[in-house]
Design a protein that fits this description.
With about 220 residues, the protein is an alpha/beta fold. The protein has nine helices and eight strands. The protein has one domain: TIM Barrel, CATH 3.20.20. Helix 2 links the parallel strand 2 and strand 3. The protein is globular.
Length: about 220
């Protein structure tokens, strides 16, 4: 697969304006990225901007904390898909994962998967807040719930993706699920290392810099 198709070109900051989102979409079309990843408010605008291209609209649900009700996550998912999203990046219920309430965690993911009606669902584990054992268990729960991807990070917590986390997730899911690395991928070496570790998709705001083999210092 070409490098550009690994990238979810991302802008999730609270101060994102329409002009910035429009630029994101233009860059995504120019470089033919896999998707743009935006907050749900911007889904209809992005869908219109990307009409006629094969760049998908990806959006986040229960973001960035994951501590929303399953019904709210499911509603947000349905609404986003109705308005043009084709990929959903939901945040795991991290507190319930830490508490060992695995049925709750699995059912939360399943509610979004069902609401997505066959569309791609990526589950953000926020690996920086989990132990290795919890990462493994979370991956297993996501597989059971029917998720398409497990994803490392929101990019809004204490750190983003690490090669070690991606390797562990890939070893756990094997061919039952895909892996997305997000947060902190700022240069071509980072990108190459994540792909070598097993990442099938990369979430980054540095997509253009990566394609130009430059370093970007943005947070996500």
């Amino acid at each position: 697969m070409k490098l550009n198709k690994y990238i979810d070109h991302t802008l999730l900051k609270a101060d994102a304006t329409q002009d910035k989102i429009e630029t994101l979409c233009k860059e995504a079309k120019e470089y033919d990225f896999a998707s743009v990843c935006v907050n749900t408010y911007w889904v209809p605008f992005c869908a219109k901007q990307l009409e006629g291209s094969d760049v998908k609209v990806c959006t986040v649900v229960g973001f960035p904390l994951g501590a929303m009700s399953s019904n709210a996550k499911a509603f947000e998912t349905k609404d986003a898909i109705e308005h043009g999203a084709s990929e959903i990046d939901m945040v795991l219920n991290i507190g319930e994962m830490k508490a060992g309430h695995y049925d709750v965690v699995r059912d939360d993911v399943k509610a979004v998967v069902e609401a997505a009606k066959g569309h791609c669902v990526k589950v953000i584990l926020e690996t920086c807040l989990l132990t290795k054992e919890e990462i493994v268990k979370a991956c297993e729960l996501c597989i059971e719930a029917g998720a398409t991807f497990v994803k490392t990070s929101t990019g809004f917590s204490t750190r983003g993706a690490t090669v070690e986390d991606v390797k562990l997730m890939k070893e756990t899911v094997k061919d039952k699920c895909l892996v997305k690395a997000a947060g902190g991928v700022r240069c071509r070496a980072d990108l190459d290392n994540m792909i070598e570790a097993g990442a099938d998709r990369i979430g980054t705001s540095a997509g253009v810099a990566l394609m130009q083999d430059k370093t970007n210092t943005s947070d996500y």
